[in-house]
Write a structure and sequence with these properties.
The protein is an alpha+beta fold and 269 residues long. Helix content is 38%, strand content 16%.
């Protein structure tokens, strides 16, 4: 092998080693994982169970307080809506009444997806998107006479594209008038809750800020509505619809079958 080829081979080998060394350099540590944690004390299983029981009592208090708060929501006075509102939907113009989809209760979440919002036009705002990812299967809400809808100022073409890309299935409408300003969601996200009696619509509740963080489950939505979960254990005004707990629960693709889910299972259907 001549000197020139030997020198070239030596340079190639050095380059290979240099590349390996470069690739093996330690990555920058995530500061969240390098800060020394002052962890709780380590105890025996028996001592751990004692501590858990102490917290369990507090958790029960919190659950009962949450139930009591929901009961107060069901006694909130209603605000009659005198103004008509119009939205653009996937099939054309839609009134606020149309958003109910024939049900008695409606929850409208104001999501920020429009020009001027960070992420446009590829994404809705990060917080609103995180909330959309949390939405549970809507069939469970629908069977309790409740509709959930999202509303933004983006055109329907962009909304439908966003839903398809992100895998979201909730109804999503375009605000075309002062709906957002009239209901406190022109500058910040929030859930407005409405009730329908025939053609008359009432605003029954509103939740935003930190309250929005917990939204997404069937129960969190029902707990802010005028009718609640509609189960017999709830403290609700006289005459409110109520059924036994568990009995109405079903697989989301079988709510059209009105038979009791437990009886259906026992029958082998």
């Amino acid at each position: 092998m001549d000197q020139r080829r030997m020198d070239q081979r030596r340079m190639d080998q050095q380059g290979d080693v240099s590349q390996c060394v470069t690739s093996m350099k330690p990555r920058k540590e995530n500061p969240m994982t390098t800060v020394a944690m002052k962890t709780p004390r380590i105890v025996s299983p028996q001592a751990w169970e004692v501590e858990r029981q102490k917290l369990l009592e507090k958790e029960k208090e919190l659950t009962h307080a949450r139930d009591a708060m929901a009961a107060q929501r069901r006694r909130m006075p209603w605000m009659a809506l005198e103004k008509k509102y119009e939205f653009d939907g996937p099939t054309g113009k839609a009134s606020l009444l149309d958003l109910f989809e024939g049900r008695r209760q409606l929850i409208v979440y104001r999501a920020f997806f429009e020009p001027g919002v960070f992420g446009w036009p590829d994404h809705a705002c990060r917080g609103c998107s995180l909330g959309a990812d949390q939405v549970s299967h809507l069939a469970h809400l629908n069977t309790r006479d409740t509709t959930l809808a999202f509303a933004s100022r983006a055109p329907q073409k962009d909304i439908q594209g966003l839903k398809a890309r992100m895998g979201w299935e909730m109804p999503w409408y375009t605000i075309t008038d002062s709906f957002d300003a009239d209901f406190g969601v022109d500058q910040w996200h929030g859930h407005n809750v409405f009730f329908r009696e025939g053609e008359r619509v009432f605003r029954t509740y509103f939740i935003n800020n930190r309250g929005d963080e917990a939204m997404g489950t069937t129960w969190s939505y029902l707990d802010v509505t005028a009718l609640g979960r509609q189960e017999e254990w709830e403290d609700s005004p006289e005459g409110y619809p109520q059924t036994p707990p568990y009995k109405w629960w079903n697989w989301h693709d079988e709510y059209a079958d009105k038979r009791d889910p437990a009886a259906k299972h026992e029958a082998g259907a």
